Amino acid sequence: MRGLPAAARGYIGCATLAAALCAAPASRLGAGAPWSSTLALATLYVLCEQLPRCPLLGGRVPYGPGSAGASGGSVAGWASPVLLAGVFLLPPPLAALAAVPGALTGPAEARSAAARRLWHAAELALACCAAAEVFRAIGHHPLSAPQFPVLLLPAAAAAATFCAVLAVLDGGVLVAAERHPLRTAWRGALTRSLGPHLVHGLAGLMMAVLWRSSYGPVAALLVLLPMCLSCWVFAQYHRERTAHQATIRALVQAVDIKDRYTRGHSERVGRASVMIARELGMAEDRVEVLRFAGILHDVGKLGVPTRLLRKDGPLTPEERRVIELHPEYGHEIVRGIGFLEEARAAILHHHERLDGRGYPYGLRGHHIPECARVVAVADAFDAMTSTRSYRRARPVPAAVAELRKCAGEQFDARMVRALAASLDRYGWQPDLVTAADAEAGAVREGQGAVTAQGAGEAAAGGQHRAPRPALRPEGAGRDGAR
């Protein structure tokens, strides 16, 4: 836990202490408590947590539906019914204990893996204990005769409690460990996961009823078969998404190899785009789209002759017009990638300007897609704060000041304010780029001054031009009329 912020260590420590206090009364339950059921459910949950490593599932699915993978939190979707069955079958302290072994032995991201597992165990124990208390408070002290319809309401209340506790705790750890803004840390967390958890609660209730029926615990395992099927479907989705990401990475590396002057630029623009999107409170799915848009904004350079990208000296007007076709080339290159629908607009329009003097179409103001206005600011910021072969980087405060100066004419002022606010909160580390960049020795920390050259300095051939005023038109468009 040494690498975590102090606030995160304190938060995880408090959650762990609270979980221990919830489980402590189990020591006073005596031999008459359902210890065998607790052990069986704990073992079953351990197996469910190991399920993502199964070769049949690709062995690469770290989290299931409803998981809060970013924080190392919530329970995988196919394992939720097991924990909720424990909520319905066991006293609250034992329900909390049943979740701990699986959480401590389950998969976790390599970064701070021990802390993530400890946090996972603590939040699940708290969620299970709270859900079990709610289930019994409504009047169903241990689950007995299978009165299935009567149990639906308390079971739904318990599942909703389970979901709410996880959502609250996960939002808190995002603030403490990953420094998310308070106003966005919990946004949408409950609404996104409530539906799946209610379905899992129904499956857990069916498991609990079968567990206590004459058919016994073995029959309860049949309920997990549909969950395993959904796990397999999710694994296929995960593989497809991984293939998409590998394609994106290959495209970016191809651009970096072709245009050696801006190596690592795409990754940094993607990171800055995410900072802006999160500061604006965008939903996580749009944040992901903006990340891809930032990473791929210059992919159209693959269609530009290498001799122009690597030319020493200034570009002729004809050569500049050729380079300014790269947004349209990029738009065509990613056309076949279905989940990049909005990102295509950012790739096509990230060199437009609010005053209409951008390219390729000279769009004005809010006719420029929002995602393109985000990427434009991120692109210009990294162009100014990166060291290139022809000049030193500009300090971050000076770059932000230049962006503010150009806001309203060249850039969207709202995006500039969002980037400035995010930089104040998190800072900027330009050296954090891909491993491939680091191995190539392409990352150079820079200071000094450079004039702002708009949203497309590097992409429009700026590395071969003399400095020019920030608000000068970006050059002629495809038809020569801009």
Automatic annotation (TrEMBL):
Matching SUPFAM superfamilies: HD-domain/PDEase-like
Question: Which keywords describe this protein according to UniProt?
Answer: Membrane, Signal, Transmembrane, Transmembrane helix
Q: Ranges for the HD domain?
A: 262-384
Enumerate the transmembrane spans: 82-106, 118-139, 151-177, 189-211, 217-235
- Annotated ranges, domain HD-GYP: 240-435
Q: Where is this region: Disordered?
A: 446-482
Give the source's domain of life in one word. Bacteria
Extent of the signal sequence: 1-26
| Biased composition range(s): Low complexity | 446-463
Q: Which Pfam families match?
A: HD_5
**PANTHER family noted in UniProt:** CYCLIC DI-GMP PHOSPHODIESTERASE TM_0186-RELATED, LIPOPROTEIN
What's this protein's name? HD-GYP domain-containing protein
